[in-house]
């Protein structure tokens, strides 16, 4: 009762009530992303859903081809995109399955079966994966190690990457994109060899 009188006291009401309303509005805005200039770039695949099993077709037990990926809501000012696919559950530590960068800003998808070459027709480039090859290398966890997670991480960048040589790896890419990331998103799939 005392608190109610305090809040609705004619002299004091505007201050605490105003503060409470402002705090509540900030909480709502932050939870919905309105208060911050965050972008909600989304990444998906027609082949598998978020946290679902990656079909055998895209693994070393199948055709070992890259899955189709699609994205939306890349922010204004995007000059290129980069994608890294890795397995943090590998016995030897983080294992890189795919690096592709300088994807044109106007692109909104990668089709299935990207060629395993350093340079692509649209100007995009591919780095070396931990299988020591250009392009995509599908999930291939050791048998008996349980289900592994495969993260496809997409970055919208404010520049093209001017990288020389044919030894572009994950460390090189992460260093190059530092300070140039406008937005990022990820898609995670799983795979287990029994």
Account of the 3D structure:
The protein is of the alpha+beta class. The protein has two domains: 2-32, no CATH class; 42-191, Phosphatidylethanolamine-binding Protein (Alpha-Beta Complex), CATH 3.90.280. It is 18% helix and 26% strand. Strands 6-4-3-7-8 form a five-stranded antiparallel β-sheet, covered by helices on one side. Strand 3 (80-87) and strand 4 form a beta hairpin. The termini are far apart.
Key phrases:
194 residues, 26% strand, 2 domains, disordered N terminus, alpha+beta, Phosphatidylethanolamine-binding Protein
CATH topology of the largest domain: Phosphatidylethanolamine-binding Protein
Provide the gyration radius in Å.
23 Å
| C-alpha geometry | globular
Number of helices: 3
Q: What is the percentage of strand-forming residues?
A: 25-35%
Helix content: 10-25%
Task: Detail the topology: elements first, then pairings.
Blueprint: H1 2-8, H2 14-32, E1 42-44, E2 69-72, E3 80-87, E4 95-104, E5 109-110, E6 125-126, E7 148-157, H3 170-177, E8 181-191
Antiparallel strand pairs: 1-2, 2-5, 3-4, 3-7, 4-6, 7-8
In short:
This protein has 194 residues and is α+β, with helices and mostly antiparallel strands. 18% of the residues lie in helices and 26% in strands. Residues 1-38 have low confidence and may be disordered.
């Amino acid at each position: 009762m005392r608190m109610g009188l305090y809040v609705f006291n004619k002299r004091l009401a505007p201050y605490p009530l105003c503060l409470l309303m402002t705090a509540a509005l900030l909480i709502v805005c932050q939870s919905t992303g309105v208060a911050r200039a965050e972008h909600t770039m989304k990444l998906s695949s027609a082949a598998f859903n978020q946290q679902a099993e990656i079909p055998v077709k895209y693994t070393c037990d199948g055709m070992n081809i890259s899955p189709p990926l699609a994205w939306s809501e890349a922010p204004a000012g995007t000059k290129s995109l980069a994608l890294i696919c890795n397995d943090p559950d590998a016995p030897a530590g983080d294992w890189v399955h795919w690096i592709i960068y300088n994807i044109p800003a106007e692109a909104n998808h990668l089709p299935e079966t990207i060629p395993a070459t350093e340079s692509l027709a649209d100007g995009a480039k591919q780095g070396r994966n931990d299988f020591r090859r250009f392009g995509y290398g599908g999930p291939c966890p050791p048998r008996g190690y349980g289900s592994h997670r495969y993260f496809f991480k997409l970055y919208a960048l404010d520049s093209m990457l001017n990288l020389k040589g044919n030894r572009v790896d994950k460390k090189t890419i992460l260093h190059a994109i530092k300070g140039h990331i406008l937005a990022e998103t990820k898609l995670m799939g799983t795979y287990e060899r029994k």
